[in-house]
Amino acid sequence: MVTVPADARRARHIAEQVPDPEMPMLTLADLGVLREVSLGPDGTVVASLTPTYSGCPAMAEMRADVAAQLAAAGYERVEIRTVLDPPWTSDWITPAGRRKLAEHGIAPPGAAPRRPAGPVPLVLTSRRTAVPCPRCGSADTEETSRFAATSCKALWRCHACLEPFEYVKEI
Fold it and tell me: Do β-strands 141-145 and 106-107 pair in parallel, antiparallel, or remain unpaired?
């Protein structure tokens, strides 16, 4: 077992508290975007983030927020790295993150699709199954728009309670 220096543990704890700019009920740790926090040989705090997808427009904000929180905690040298491999998957959302999404009326994703290594196949038909309503639990729901306020969410409506809701897509 590797012993993590106290400053690295403290730096990770601080970085884990940074909220996601698009879904502020989640921290970057809840979302699974915060990959690693370590100390370089010169004492630089190195935080590694993986975007939810390569074109995520919130990535610059995430990087700035993590750097600002660490600087505010007294870390003078901070480096934020973007890690693209392995790519982020919605399976990295923690159980606490999934619970927080549902508590805020956003349906959490199911299991991410499993694909063999290699090119991503082009699928022209929808393979959607029912998404349970985060408010009443009914499976009598329908997708109303494939896109919502952010690219990683879709809009759905519940036929049982008549409430609209957002759904985090499986990636």
Answer: unpaired
Query: What integer is the mean pLDDT of 30-42?
Result: 95
Cite the beta strand spans of the chain per DSSP E: 34-39, 45-49, 78-82, 106-107, 141-145, 153-158, 164-168
Task: Provide Rg for the chain, Cα atoms.
Answer: 18
83 token code pair: 């890690």
* Cα distance between residue 31 and residue 41, in whole Å: 29
In the numeric block, the tokens 């995430």 are attached to: 62
Residue with more model confidence, 86 or 130? 86
Instruction: Give the pLDDT confidence of 50-94 residue by residue, as tens digits.
Output: 999 888 889 999 999 999 999 999 999 999 999 999 999 999 999
**Crossing angle of helices 6-16/59-72, nearest 10°?**
130
Rounded-to-integer distance, Cα 97 and Cα 92, Å: 9
Q: Distance between CA atoms of 107 and 122, rounded to whole angstroms?
A: 26
| Pair 138, 155: CB distance under 8 Å | no
Cα 64 from Cα 79, distance rounded (Å):
10
Distance (Å, whole) CA 19 – CA 41: 28
Residue 46 phi/psi, 5-degree rounding, is -115, 115
The rounded distance, in Å, linking the Cα atoms of 153 and 94 is: 17
